[in-house]
Amino acid sequence: AMGLISYGFVVRGLSHRHEIKLSELVEVTLPDKTKVRRGHTSVDSHHRHSIDIGLDGKGRTSVEMGHWHDVQIVGEGAGAKVVVGPPQGNLIARAPIFGKLQILGKDGNASEGINVGNEWTYRGYIEGGTPGTQTKAAAIWTFEGVTREKFPEKKYPDGLPLELTLRVFRSYKGDIERGVLGEIVLRNPDNPAKRSGPILFESKEFVADRHEIPWKLNSQAGGAAGTGQIDLFDDLVSNGKLQVEVRCVEPAQYFGVATADCYLRPNDDTFEVNFFKGYLSIWLQMVLVTSFGVAFSTFLSGPVAMMATISAVVLGFFGDEIRNVASRKIEGGGPLESLIRLVTQQNVQVDLEMNSVLVAILKGIDFVLLWIMQAGTHVLPDYNQFNTSAFVADGYSIMGSVIAQQLTMAAVYTLAVAVVGYFFLKTREIAA
Known about the structure:
The protein is α+β, with helices and mostly antiparallel strands. Helix content is 33%, strand content 25%. The strands form 6 sheets. Strands 9, 10, 12, 15, 16, 17 and 21 form a 7-stranded antiparallel β-sheet that branches. Strands 1-2-3-4-5-6 form a 6-stranded antiparallel β-sheet, with no helix packed on it.
């Protein structure tokens, strides 16, 4: 019931409409000599889109906040108007195919990437520059299972579906309204000399930047592009393996890359099914909490069983933090020492201003309490492993292996707790 109600709120909250005034569109000529009408939508739901409408009266808005709209001019003369369709691309469940990432430094050797000062080291950064001269830095993903059966040309007439979610670090501002230029090169993993010509692109941050890689590509021989045509499957795929090389073209700019920042996107799963999987994970959390509550109630009174259940939930959600406190990775001491420091407002980096004997007793008690808490974190389930809401919110399908792992963990814990609770309850009946 809660899942159905929240699904209604999700759909209702994402639904919105933009307006475009036909009189505000300006006719411009693109670099390929194509003429379009360009403009912007009205502001709705705290955003707006840019729009190019072709001479046929049809177009599509830019991607903002993870979605876009189809646009069409209907009517003629004074009665003509622009109709904006509903948002698309929000309620999706991507089922990506990930590859293995290798980062090359500017000298062409394997590297972990440049650290640009971010505390989160999830991404390594590659330096921009003209390939082969200023830098050889690149990010190379190796994909497996790239076959004609999985990617038939009839189903994907525009080419191999590839998406990028790169990050950009600018050492100088430049033109802040446009992205940093990069290039994509496809190459044969068994024969790196067989490579496609560079496919230029403009980086887009915080959105999935989709590219359709043509089935027929320009080859790159001796560093020069356009020396002939090559077939993606016949020339670049070897035993189902394909390498995708991404470089940053602009000098002194950087691309941040991680394994999941480049993937193939053959098909999408159904959003409603993915939404159900997310709620299934939450339901499994509830089953575990209920199981522990029932087990505690077999040998504890009601209020004490409730406190024990709450403690089990806290230990299950914050196990990493508790283990870090016990191992002194986080300063501040155990429960009693932390309480005294909070009340007396003493800094965690200075010694307690108390009698040395009391401090020794206090730390001894904290040691025992932390040991018990740390042991509990290893015994109790890690509830964070049952949180898959980020998959649903970011538009990625929850993998079946994740659901299977969660179901197995929940079944094992529930069965073990049920057996323990049964024996405690049986013992009480015999004693009575």
